[in-house]
Design goal:
With 269 residues, the protein is of the alpha+beta class. 30% of the residues lie in helices and 15% in strands. It has one domain. The longest helix is centred in the N-terminal third of the chain and has 18 residues.
Length: 269
């Protein structure tokens, strides 16, 4: 008799959140972030669309400053809930700083301040509440291999006051994105990069889905057309007609003109 060989296929069921994160750009999926050469153009495109959808700056998710300094450009993402992503574009390369306030890699801690005690306090003790200071300890590995050219950005303002749970960079000599040797957190938020980097895959459809949810009141009774996002992602000059297709209620074109000039996006307004 011939023996039968039975092949058993085992299906590994991964949590939905894990599968979702595997499909999104993150520090563990650097290849899903649009290439460094295209990132500046993408950030300007997203910021331009945001300026059209949300004329009030404080309610925007993305914003961009082409003249942050004489040699630097700057992109900011904030969700109004304490999470931030700041991106520096300089002659030395690109550096992305992210901060997720719910991540266990959030290193902000109240640290006691040592005060000089008077003789009386030493003798009888003090009833004063001990003073503390909020200090950030960036998790090991996140910035330990950071190129020196980005030190001022990461350890200076405004990053210093916001915080860091992840950091990604690309110097002018690098061919791809880099990170340090990180001991990732095991909590569901990890370092926050899979959420904060979501729109940086460079896909117009990703932005469409995200924007229709984030700005749900604006798109409750209408659709944000994919072809309009594709046009701006491609770098087409923004016209009044295009603006009104995206946001029929926008009427302050003078303000939009100023915003687009600050972003550095070409327009015909």
């Amino acid at each position: 008799m011939k023996s039968k060989v039975v092949n058993t296929i085992v299906f590994l069921m991964l949590p939905t959140s894990t599968i979702t994160q595997m499909d999104k750009p993150s520090t563990e999926n650097l290849k899903l972030i649009t290439n460094p050469e295209n990132l500046r153009k993408l950030c300007k495109s997203i910021s331009a669309i945001e300026a059209i959808i949300s004329p009030e700056w404080e309610y925007r998710y993305y914003s961009y400053q082409k003249d942050w300094s004489e040699t630097e450009e700057f992109c900011e993402m904030r969700n109004g809930q304490g999470d931030h992503m700041l991106i520096l574009f300089s002659n030395d390369g690109i550096c992305i700083n992210g901060f997720d306030h719910e991540s266990e890699m959030n290193g902000w801690k109240n640290t006691p301040i040592e005060e000089k005690k008077s003789f009386i306090d030493k003798l009888f003790g003090s009833k004063k509440e001990p003073k503390t200071e909020l200090i950030q300890e960036i998790p090991n590995g996140v910035v330990t291999e950071l190129p020196e050219v980005f030190n001022e950005f990461i350890f200076g303002e405004p990053v210093k006051s916001i915080g860091t749970t992840f950091c990604i960079w690309n110097t002018k000599t690098d061919t791809d994105w880099k990170i340090g040797k990180i001991n990732f957190s095991e909590d569901k938020y990890n370092d926050g990069s899979s959420d904060l980097l979501e729109l940086l895959d460079g896909k117009p459809m990703t932005y469409k889905k995200w924007a229709e949810e984030y700005y749900e009141e604006d798109f409750e009774n209408r659709e944000l057309k994919l072809e309009l996002i594709e046009k701006i992602y491609s770098g087409i000059n923004i016209s009044r007609e295009l603006v009104l297709e995206i946001n029929p209620k926008l009427d302050d074109f003078e303000k939009l003109r100023t915003d687009l000039n600050e972003i550095g996006y070409e327009h015909e307004i």
